[in-house]
Amino acid sequence: MAIQPRDSVAVARQRPDPSRIQDLFLARLAQLEERVAEELARPAEASSPLQEFLLDASREAWTAVRAVGSVVSEPRGFLRRLALAVSARPSDELGVDAEAADSVRELLRPLMRMWLGFAHAEGAPLAADGGVLVLVNRGAWPLPAEPLAVWTVLSEHAAGRPIHALWDERYLELPLLGDWLSRIGFASPSEDNCRALLERGRIVIGFPEGRAALSKTYDRRYRLARFSDTGMIAAAIDAGAAIVPAALIGNEESFPVLGNAAGFPVTAQFPALGAAGLLPLPLAWRLKLGTAVEYPHDGDPAALADAVQARVQAMLAEMLAARTSIVRG
Fold it and tell me: Which domains does the chain have, with CATH numbers?
């Protein structure tokens, strides 16, 4: 008996769907990637410093590959974040574009993780409501690398609350850079600006060493300049805001200031490497938040500034004592 041909519709139904096969393949590939990530993250015995370095390097390399892969696999999302970060958008009553700020942080986070190993802040959590003034030490590098890094990391601890950074007004007055910084939430460190933000319940990052830090060189790293400008602390007292000391390490090794030339700091990489020397050296940064400082409602700003400075200096000493390497933290 001759074999009769099957119905063409039935054959079509039995034919494998190419899109379904691709979905299964991608799912299996994702499982394998997760398994590789778990294996790389698993602690391994190192018989020598070189082997330990190679193990750490492999973990960081895999993290970098996955970050690049996510950008390649979703180019539209990356391009959208980039466009939002640089384009003009409607802003709030303070001139801040929250969507642009989020896009900038999304772009900076993977770069900071890969380059500086800087992703989270340690220590006490920030208050869930009300104004919060976070006072951080800084180095002698004048460009806003430190405030951008701290601003990005602290946003992970802000629970969606608006977060601002106060930095040298000379850079906020520049035509392009200043406009961009203002739009993502930066402001000059005046008492009035700080008070206005804190009264609105914002989280504000301040660097109370101010321009006095610009005179520091590498041999004076992590030795705080006097918190002589007490305007931010006075604003916090007036607004009844929490005052949180914070310590940052790694920044002064990434920008090792050796001296000054023509009014601009000379580092190990700048101006020798040209524009590339404006980037920080790829060393480990760490940020620790202390507990909020208690103060009376009629507290003396100068006395409170001295107390905060002592707290930050003590935190720096503890963090530096615990650090085993400037490369790995």
Answer: 93-322 (3.40.1130)
